[in-house]
């Protein structure tokens, strides 16, 4: 009996020992505010975590993720991050979706001197104006995605451009980047109308009418989600898109494309993720594993979650520890594979060179897909080092 | 803008007005009769949308719309008879807390039932295309809506003026107690009115599905629009709601048409502020009848007993000892709790003893926070000085907004505070160069001697206990008694020479000062600040804390803040559907302790 108890205690000790040995990663995101993007994201990192631990973990230690909901506001996100750091003893932070939350957590990471891998936020500021040495960002930024579309836009030699964007930082900086890059690529391009509806509250009929009044040759939009759906339906009904060239950032991502179904506007140029057509071995492997585990197809968020988790694993492996300074050194210039191609975390601004797919929308059996797509490697769509250094304050 | 596009924008406005009217009419009806500020009205709208898009594939759009509306009506009747009916005797605004809890529960239910993805419903069969008007393509369905809104208005008008039930509703809207005294069965009347209101909300949602997708955030978006329409039109006035919907939708449409789309962020709140300042009871509203003895009469705040004071002192001492035991996250959480307690107490100061219900108190919290951030970043002021100065910016904001607000009373006042908060929010959200726009300001940390968790905790503890103590102390000063007199009987207070409005204005400003202090402390504890600090959500959080603790008690708001912040922290950590759990807990608390938690305890001990 005593032996049994002693054995039992040993087992408990061993278990806590293993627990203490695992590498603890704090993850936070706005799961309840943006579930459409973040449920697939969570499935992505959970898959990666399972794979990494099945393969024996990192440096002989298992990875353990403690995940939290940040309630969709920066104040709570900072509190949650503090909890992950001081109560849960997380040695690395990852996650966030909205830009202002990403910036707030990056700012905290800088103050607490802990590495933060920003997964989803698109804002350019997180690696440039407000960049700091503890923060790395995976997803191609607003600027990069705009830059991927501009060559196609310039090729068409359209003179009169109308712009529509959600009225907050993402839409504003997408618009500013587009104007700047297109003017450089195609001198003389005119911007004849600008519509900036409040996020989630577009009066689609009026906006479509106002755009038609401006008689543009082409439209550049950075709408997404419900705004995009309303805009597309009204535009289809009112004939705005007939013989009109339209560029729409992000609209090819399954998260935003799939709800459009038979409304999908054909011929639009978009950035996105045509998951069913990518035939690289890396993606095939990811797709098979994802579908086997979740009985669902991956969205772009899945790729982001999956790759963020692997970023942490590769970084810790290369650093040989979770010490922030060593980890920063390891992450700077880290080269790794993702389901959509190899990436490098640039030493100069901590931005990964993850790319995106650029293509045109089409309808197949009442479902939206991308055609004529090609992969745009993020490395080619970033400003020169000197420009980046000037923007960063460190 | 050519004549034809002018015409089309006008028609666009008409179509939008119809949808806006449907949801606002229900809200107005419910408020008029039951005096419930139905926060869950947007959730009913959302349910209508989801039900319609879920039923449409099998039954077809035209069958799914009325079915969805009826289902929402049935749900509304259930909510009224099982939940709200128990709360009519409770202090006013408690129903608001209950409906807030419903919002949380319905949101998580919707997520669970229909999943996270937006669902774009089918086009309406028979009205899927466009007609040519003035050479432009105009959606047939929008034409249908243009006629549908007025048709519903006509129907409601008929029911309300030509049927016995309508007579009873109007009687109850004008004077609920008198209707009750004359033998009108209030239970049945209230349930039927609530069901009709829910039906209109569900119908509004269902008919909207060919125009926009069913999404999980539509509930809060619609509710603020609906409130604005109801208040601009005049509470309880159905034609007023129609007029207001028309006004707001047309203004929005033409703002877009003339290229001022950015202003649509806030235009309805500007309209509301202007209307309320010029016509305190809305376009077609009448001065509301004073409700007599609906809730338990508010007992005067007694001087806190020695035991309570000793207990509070012991609590403060205990809090000061915490860093000896815990140094990590406990301090972070306590810092949050303390500053929200100060925020809640400052709100309670005007809401409870002052009787000025504010739905926009976050404005002053946010002004304090932004004041602190901007002073440090743009002004180069040291952090300590910024912390001391920023609350005065909030107080100044409260001084300016308060001057308009204290001219009103009841829900009108609440909505005007909300309007000002939204206007302040949109300025900060929009003014990218100065306030950092939607991203806000990052990198505002305390000075190095305050930067450890323990040091900042002590600072917060000191500032918040001092602030709370001062607010409480003032309630028992001659000024505090004068403010309370103004709430209990403005007429008598006036008669004995108290300038009620001036006192209320001063109280409003004073409360703003301390909300600003809480905001400044918040900014430095987080290191960053974004427009969410003064969003509607923050205002509602404050309301929830005050109501949860008990509006007619002294210490209630503190316990409300503790409970709400702790609940969010504890529940969100482990449970997927944490919003529903919090909603459920609040519902249980509301049903068990309609006086608020502290109010309940006080009643217990008073016996």
Write the topology of this structure.
The complex is a heterodimer of chains A (394) and B (607).
Chain A lengths: L1 H20 L1 E7 L5 H20 L8 E7 L4 H14 L4 E4 L3 H14 L2 E4 L16 E3 L4 H14 L4 E5 L4 H17 L4 E6 L8 H10 L4 E4 L3 H14 L6 E8 L1 H4 L11 E4 L8 H14 L5 H20 L4 H8 L3 E4 L2 E4 L11 E9 L2 E10 L8 H7 L3
Parallel strand pairs in A: 1-2, 1-3, 3-4, 4-5, 6-7, 6-8, 8-9, 9-10
Antiparallel strand pairs in A: 10-13, 11-12, 13-14
Chain B lengths: L2 H32 L6 H19 L1 H22 L11 H21 L15 E4 L2 E4 H23 L1 H11 L1 H6 L4 H23 L9 H16 L4 H20 L9 H12 L27 H20 L3 H23 L10 H16 L5 H23 L4 H21 L1 H4 L5 E2 L10 H23 L2 H11 L1 H6 L4 H27 L1 E2 L6 H14 L6 H19 L3 H15 L3 H11 L1
Antiparallel strand pairs in B: 1-2, 3-4
Please give the count of helices of chain B.
25
The shape of chain B is globular
Overall body shape of chain A: globular
Gap between N and C termini of chain B: 72 Å
The main sheet of chain B orders its strands as 1-2
Radius of gyration of chain B: 25 Å
Class by helix and strand content of chain B? mainly alpha
Supply the number of helical segments of chain A.
Answer: 13
Give me the count of strands of chain B. Answer: 4
Average predicted local confidence, pLDDT of chain A: 91
User: What's the average pLDDT of chain B?
Assistant: 89
How can the largest sheet of chain B be summarized? 2 strands, antiparallel
Q: List the secondary-structure elements of chain A in sequence, H or E.
A: HEHEHEHEEHEHEHEHEHEHHHEEEEH
Strand content of chain A: 15-25%
Q: What topology, given as strand order, has the largest sheet of chain A? A: 7-6-8-9-10-13-14
